[in-house]
Structures are given as structure tokens and as C-alpha cells.
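Feature request disguised as a bug: please show the residue count (268) next to Phosphate import ATP-binding protein PstB in the output. Example input:
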Amino acid sequence: MVTQTSQFEDDSAAPSGPPKMEAQGVSVFYGDKKAIDDVSIDIPTDYVTAFIGPSGCGKSTFLRSLNRMNDTIPTARVEGTIKLDGDDIYDPKLDVVQLRARVGMVFQKPNPFPKSIYENIAYGPKIHGLASSKDALDEVVERSLKRAGLWEEVKDRLDDSGTALSGGQQQRLCIARAIAVDPEVILMDEPCSALDPIATARIEELIHDLRGRYAIVIVTHSMQQAARVSQRTAFFHLGKMVEFGPTSEIFTNPKKERTKDYITGRYG
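Example output, currently without the count:
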């Protein structure tokens, strides 16, 4: 498992290059209710960014705004600006399907398609035209499963249903499915909350291995997990982002009293 000590060694350095995603003054409403209030944050490519905070604080709502998943909720609306490589993702001319290929999402509960393991991975590349032949598709499937640390466990049963895998394997299958369309950002909404400690450790190792290849944002209720896997942490409370910075600073020397109270268990 990735240890807290090892990841704290390099999280004070500034990210290299411009941010992959930039949010400026973002507020999210569900009808008249404001769920997110004026959040601004940069998401770097080379670090894992964790969102922490008590239940109902808005961290998952904000995460879903990063690939317009809130569009699926009729009463939701987003104010402010979110950019991917400098382009506004809420531009009316933007193709949302293409956006979600570039900004993939892994949900709290594993949700493999009711298809074979192979077809779970091949589906995205097929609909996006990323593989020109069966051999090319086979390569994408194998590469994606290897990156997700699942290939050796399933290579001899690719025709089996994805839903027949264990919970931890299903979650890694969903990560492989997200990787298969060659995304630039991977959003993870509490990806380990339904998993046992051993499966959780495998997912955390996978996040560590994928770091730098993709910009990764993870929502987690576990402060220990945030400390193990991330280099940047944002603390959310009551719809506001209270503090954002290097994970080691957030956990050992937070600047805001509310952050300190949460980290030390005084509330939340």
C-alpha cells in the first residue's frame, strides 16, 4: 500500500506546467438551493487531488460539475467557469460526449455493464472510433486491463460477465473502462467506500501507479486515504471550499481553524 510518509516527501513542490482544469467562481444550484458556493481551484496533471469533508458538504457535487454530470439533473445549474486545457467545458457548442471521454468518471459503487469483461472495455473505444480493427481493439483491451492491474486475473476469461467479478475487481474493471478511451482526467467519487480493506489497498496502489499519466481527482470520506494517495487536498464544508493546498500541509499544519477542527475530529 502507498504509505503516508512516502507520498508526503514530494507534495510541497509546485506542479509542473499549467493546470489541466481550472475552476473559477463555481456555484452549483439544485433549484433554489445552493449546493456549492463560489469555488475556485486548479487541478494539476502531475498530482492526485483529494476532496475531503463531512457528508453533504458538496464535494461530490463539485466533482460532478467537472465533467457536466450535473447536466443529468433537471433542476441543476452551474455558474462560474470551468476550463479544460483553457477551453470552457460549459460552452454550448461543446460536445458533452467527447468531454466525458476526456474526463472519465469512476463511481462509488462499481457499475460494470451487463456484458463480458472484454466488451466492458471495448465499448468506449468502439463508439469513439479509437480502434480501426479487431487486433487494435484487442490491444486497447489488454493495455487498459494491465494499467488497471486486472489483466493477469482475467486474461483467460475475457468472455465472462463483468458482473461476475468480485467488488474490488469490478471497480478495477470500471477504472480500466475509463482508461480505455484514453482520457486526460479521471474523477473518482469515493471509489473504495463499498470495498474491503484488501480491495481498497489495490485501488490505492492503482491510483499511485496512474499518477502523472492522468490528472486524478478523488472524493473520499477517509482522511487516511487522502493522506495516502494525494499530493493536493481540498477541504469542503457547507458548500464552500475552506482550504486547498499540499496534502502534508492540510493534515499537519492547516491554515484555517475549520480545517484543523475537522482534521482533529472536533466535528464532521
